[in-house]
Amino acid sequence: MSKIGLIIKREYSTRVKKKTFIIMTILGPILFAALMITPAILMQMEDDEFKRIAVVDETGVFTNVLKDTKYIAFDDVSGSYYDDATVSYNLTKAKKDLKESDYYALLYIPHTAIQSKDGEVVVYSYNSPNVGLNMHIANLVEKQTEYVRLQMLMDEFGLKETAVDSVLSVVNSNINVVTSSLGEDGSEKESFAEVNMILGYICGFLIYMFVFMYGSQVMRGVIEEKTSRIIEVIVSSVKPFELMMGKVIGIALVGLTQFLLWIILTGGIVTVAQSVVLKDYNPSKMNPQTMSVGSQLDDSGVVPDEQAMKFEKAFQSIYSINFVEIIIYFIIYFLGGYLLYAAMFAAIGSAVDNEADTQQFMLPITLPLILGLFVMMSAMKTPNGSLAYWFSLIPFTSPIVMMARIPYGVPFIDKAISITLLIGTFIFMTWFAGKIYRVGILMYGKKVNYKELWKWFKYKN
């Protein structure tokens, strides 16, 4: 065991001192923290540029309907561009005048905006309009269009026009679907499928990336030592199996160290950002329970849109996720998946003389990993489906697929079976790869195929 420990120490110390390890350890947390805090920063940023919008309204029903806000004002210029000769509006001249005017944009409302079910209005601007402006215009035009159509319908049936407001107040509704996860102890916790899907994808993809990246490092390390003939000196004082295990475990600790540093540094950056950059961020100012879908902008120009409300609520739900559980299972499946595949990568590295010769042996190893990615996509949509269930138990795909299912909630018995099978398969694969490794590590100048590998496996000690 002392010899394995020395090999582990050598592999670990040489790799954590490399520039690539240091650079990725620093850049990773910065990227993850940016992904977490950027939505909140964008939410609290307010567009305080005053915009005056010229309006050409062919319908004539939007006069005094387009309400001004603190940062947006509408001017109806329809009369200036009406051509009595053609009985139409000169939109070409309006767009030409926009360039020389002080208007930020030109809003064109054609007749079809209220005639067809899926009407359109056009905003012409030399500057790309922001989302808030487009949402505000869409809100106003949509509500007035509904009002006009309902009024026309009531006229057709001979109903009073004054009843339009009463009808709208009755039929307008805002239904929010809230999902609540029930625990085995009967507890309830609000959840968001969108957040679970994103978290599951990130965890599954990171497992795939780590397993493939660090498993490849094991294979390259074995090939380098074999081609440099330094392996002949090493195996004179240590058994081939001990050398393989020391290399596999040493690189596993490198990956685990980098992952833990990412967690600590990401948490630190997010905490600092919350206390400094987001100190004035108040999610409660956009409460979905007190705002309707058709609400107008408030004085600050904020649009309480339905999608914005859902995004805001989903963003808040991130902080209710049990990250401790996620991290624990991530480490378990990372180590299990890595150790399983690293043993196979080590066996391949010992069987070839250079990296180019590994291609024929890589497909059987990489195929389950790639298959796991595809099944992960299905698992994010139907986490309890039969496809996701069985592939989360199969050891060669379970590290990826199970991590995509865990954010949705997986019974403990399923996780226990999956981990047990993963550990058992890792032990068997390590024994199997070790029998190939002990022969191939000292084999030079011979093209190896699967038949030859089987002969090596059957060699007696």
> SSE string, helix = H, strand = E?
HHEEEEHEHEHHEEHHHHHHHHHH
Alpha carbon gap, first and last residue: 20 Å
What's the number of structural domains? 2
Rounded to the nearest angstrom, the radius of gyration is 32 Å
Poorly predicted runs: 283-306
Helical stretch tally: 16
Biggest sheet statistics: 4 strands, mixed
Q: What is the global morphology?
A: elongated
**Helicity, as a percent range:** 55-70%
Secondary structure tally: strands: 8
Global structural class: alpha/beta
The fraction of residues assigned to DSSP E strands is 5-15%
Overall pLDDT level: 76
How do the strands line up in the largest sheet? 2-1-5-6
Structure description:
The structure is a single chain. The protein contains 16 helices and eight strands. The strands form three sheets. A four-stranded mixed beta sheet has the order 2-1-5-6, covered by helices on one side. β3 (82-83) and β4 form a beta hairpin. Mean pLDDT is 76; it is low at 283-306. The protein folds into two domains: 2-32 and 189-458, no CATH class; 51-171, 3-Layer(aba) Sandwich (D-Maltodextrin-Binding Protein, domain 2), CATH 3.40.190. By secondary structure, the protein is an alpha/beta fold. The radius of gyration is 32 Å and the shape is elongated.
Entry keywords:
461 residues, alpha/beta, D-Maltodextrin-Binding Protein, domain 2, 4-stranded mixed sheet, two-stranded antiparallel sheet, 16 helices, 8 strands
